[in-house]
Amino acid sequence: MTDIRVLLVDDEPDIRDVVDVSLGLDPEFNIRACASGADALVTAAEWSPAIILLDVMMPLMDGPTTLANLRKNPRTASIPVVFLTARTRTDEVAQYISLGAQGVLSKPFNPMTLAAAVRGYLPASAAPYAP
Amino acid sequence: MGAKVIKSILLIEDNPGDVRLLRAMFDEHGEHDTEMTSVDCMSAAEAHLVRHVVDIILLDPGLPDAQGLGAIRRAHAAAPRLPLVVLTSLDDEMVAEQALQEGAQDYLIKGQIEVRGILRALRYAAERKRLERLKDEFVSTVSHELRTPLTSITGSLGLLMGNAAGNLPPPMARLLAIAHSNSQRLVRLVNDILDIEKMEAGRVVFSFDRVEVRPLVAQAIEANRGYAEGYGVRVRFDDAHGAAADVRADPDRLLQVVTNLLSNAIKFSPANNEVMVAVEKSADTVRLTVRDHGPGIPVDFKPLIFEKFAQADAGAARQKGGTGLGLSIVKQIVDRLSGEVGFADAPGGGTIFHVELPCWDHVASLAIDRQAKPGAPRLLLCEDDLDTALTLREQLRQAGFATDFAYSAADALVRAVTTLYHAILVDIHLPDGDGVSLIVRLRALPQYHDTPIIVVSGDAGSGRDDPRATKLSVLDWLNKPVDFDRLVRLLAKPVGPEASRRPRILHVDEDNAVARALSEIGDVVTVNSIEDAQRALKTSDFDLAVLDVALAKGADPDLLPELRDSKGHVIPVVVFSANGANLASDTQVPAALVESHTSMDSLMATVRDRLASRTTNVFREVV
User: Fold this and answer.
1) Complex ipTM, two decimals?
2) H or E stretch covering B281
3) Which residues of B487-503 are buried (b: 16+ CB within 10 A; e: fewer)?
4) Chain A residues contacting B via beta carbons under 8 Å
5) What whole-number distance in Å separates Cα of residue B300 and Cα of residue B292?
6) Residue ranges of chain B whose CB lies within 8 Å of a chain A CB
7) Quick one: what percent of chain B has pLDDT higher than 70?
8) CA of A98: which chain B residue's CA is closest?
9) Contacts of B450 (CB under 8 A, 6+ apart)
10) pLDDT per residue over B530-562, tens digit each?
11) pLDDT at res. A45
12) Which of B88-102, B164-178, B444-458, B480-494 has the lowest mean pLDDT?
C-alpha cells in the first residue's frame, strides 16, 4: 500500500486528535503530529513527509515563521505546506500564499472531507489515488 | 478607574458668537490644563485631526461644507476612535437618535444646557467611548478564542455523524445530530460577530475585481442546496444563463451577501415553497432580487431590519437558527461595494430583497475624468474604493485638476504608459499588490522618473516603513482622511503650468531606438498611430510630437495638421524618416532628406532645438 506521509503541526492537542482521526479516514495516509514549530522543523527533516499541515497561531514560533525556516533547510525546502487556520480573510490567505504556502484550509473544517482536501494539494507523483 | 482626563477639545462650529461664548465659559469653568481649539468647517477639522492629538470632538453639525447627519458621519469617519458630542440648536428627537447611531456619544441642545452640564457631558462621553472600545476588543478576542474549542467540537461531532467511529444506534444518532447542528450554528454566529466587528472597525480589506453575478449566484444557490432541503424549500433561478451582468465587487464578500439573503429567504419560507432569485442588468447597475413566500416583515420592524441582532420575532427566529446579524452584514458589505440594498412587500405575500451594484462598464467609464476643465493638469489616482475616489475627484476638480482613476496596480501601469500624468496619487493597499511595489515600477518608466508621486492611504505609515521607500522620492505620505489643503499645496508646486520641467514628447513610431534617444531629452509617450496620438493628446499635454513619415503618410492627411493639445493649441511636429525615404516629394513634408545613419543625431539635434524655442509660435519641422 502507498504510504503518504502527512505531518500535522498544531499546538492544540484536541485539534491534533481530531485532525488525526479525520485524515485517518484515508487508508493511505500515514500521519504524525507535532505540537510546535521547532518540533516540526526536526521531524520534517528526519521523516520527509509528502505534505505539512501547519497551524498559524502558535506560541514561540508561529506558522509563517515555521514555514520560512522549513524553506531555509534544503531537506525540507520543497515539501508542500498547507495552512490550517481560523484566520482566512482574503488578505490573510493572499499573504500565506505569498510566503510560499501551497494553500489554506480553514478552521473549523469538515472532518469528513479533510483528507480529500489535503490530497488535492499533493504533488501529482505523491498521490496515486487507489480507493 | 481608567478614565482619561480630557486635555484637548476640538470644537467644530462656524458661528463665531457661539465659539466666543463657549470659550469664555470653558475658561471660567474648565479644567486648567484643558485646551480648546476651534475650526469653522469640516475640512479644517479633518485636517486638524490628521495632525493633532485630540481627546474629544464637540460638533455643531450646521457647517458650510457639511450639514446634519452627513457632518456627524464625516467627523466620525475622520476619527472613529474619538468620542464625539453634538451641540446643536436643532431640538429633534429623531435626528438625535440617528446622530447616536452614526457614532455620536451625546446630543446636546444649545440653550438647554449650561456650561457645567456640557463639561460633564464631555467627560461622560469620553468614558462611554472608552468602555465601548473595551467591549469591541473583548468581543474580538473572545470570538477568536471561541473558534479553537469549536474546531475540536464540530470536528469530533462531524466524525461521529459521518460514522467514522462506527455505525451509531438511531437514538444516539438523533442526539448527536442536535449537538452537531448546534455546534455549526455556533460557528456561524462567531463568524458573523467577527465579521461585523471587523467591518465596523474598518479593518476588512476589500479586493475589488470584475465579477460575473450570475455564476456567483448559481454558486451560492448550490452551496445552500442542503440548507434549503432541510427546510423543504426549493430555490429557483430562471435566468442563470442570461446575458453577462458584470459588477465591480469583492467576489468573496458578494458571495456572502447572496448567501445571507438566500439563507434568510429559505429560513422564513413555509415548507414546499419556492425562493425566486433574479438578476437584471440596466445601463449603470446590476440588480439582484431574492423573493420569498414567508410571512412578510411586520410594519413596526421595517425600520430596524438592517440593525444588529434585529429579529422581528426573536423567539421564532432563534428557533430557525438565525443570528440576527445576516442582514446587518449584508448592509455593511453593500455599502462598501458602493451599492444599495432594500426590500419591499411582495405582491401576494412574502418579501423581495434587492441589491443594486454598479456595473463594471459603468465603473470603468468613470475612470476617465471627462468633466474637468479643458487643459486642467491631469492626475492619476490609484485607489480601489470608488466612493473615496469620486469624492477626491470632486474636491480636486474644484482645485482645478482632472483626475483619472486606476482601480488596481495593473490598471495604473496601463494608464501611466498611455497617458502622461502630471502627478500620481497612490493608495498603499491595492487589490493586486501594494502601493510601494507600484511606485517602484512607475519610477522604472523613464517618463515617470521625476513625476511627483504622493501616497494617499489609510495606512500611509506602513508604506513609509517599507525599506524600498527611501529611494522612491515620494513627495509626501498622507493619511486618510486626506488633509486636502496640504494635498493641493503639494500638487500646485510641481505641476503648475509655469513650472520648469522636463519637456514632454509624443513619439508616434514603432522604433524603440528613437524612443530611447528621445527619453534622454524629455518624458516620452510612444504610440503607434496618428489616431492613438490624438487620443493621447486629449488627456495629456505635450511640447512636441515626433512622427515617423511612414505613419504620417499612411494616415489621413487631414489628421496631421490637427495634432492639438487639450487646450486646443496645435503642437509642433517633427517629422523624420526612419529608413531614409524621400520626404521632399511629399507635399506635407517639403524638406530635406536625411541619411539613415546620421538621422538619429540630427533628429535629436532638431528636437532639442525646437524644444529650446518652444515658447515661439507653432511650427512644423521636417528633418
Assistant:
1) 0.80
2) strand B273-281
3) bbebbeebbeeeeebbb
4) 12, 14-15, 17-19, 21-22, 25, 86, 89-91, 94, 107-112
5) 20
6) 144, 147-152, 154-156, 158-159, 162, 164-165, 187, 198, 204-205, 207, 250, 252
7) 85
8) B433
9) B473, B502
10) 777 777 777 777 778 887 777 665 555 555 555
11) 96
12) B480-494
**Cβ count near B514 (within 10 Å):** 22
**A14 to chain B: nearest residue by CA?**
B152
Q: pTM higher than 0.90, yes or no?
A: no
Q: What phi and psi values does residue B570 have, to the nearest 5 degrees?
A: -75, 135
What gap in Å lies between CA B201 and CA B297, rounded to an integer?
Answer: 29
Enumerate the β-bridge partners of residue B9.
B36, B56
C-alpha cell read off for B187: 460557528
> Rounded to 5 degrees, what angle do the CA atoms B420, B425, B427 make?
135
Question: Domains in chain B, ordered, with CATH?
Answer: 1-196 (3.40.50.2300), 209-233+249-270+285-355 (3.30.565.10), 367-495 (3.40.50.2300), 504-622 (3.40.50.2300)
pLDDT at B311: 65
**Looking up cell 493638469, which residue turns up?**
B377
Kindly calculate the radius of gyration of chain B based on its CA atoms and give it in whole angstroms.
31
Q: Contact at 8 Å (CB) between B453 and B472?
A: yes
Q: Are strands B35-39 and B8-12 parallel, antiparallel or unpaired?
A: parallel
pLDDT band of B322, cuts 50, 70, 90: low
Q: Which domains does chain A have, with CATH numbers?
A: 4-122 (3.40.50.2300)
Question: For position B564, what pLDDT does the model report?
Answer: 64
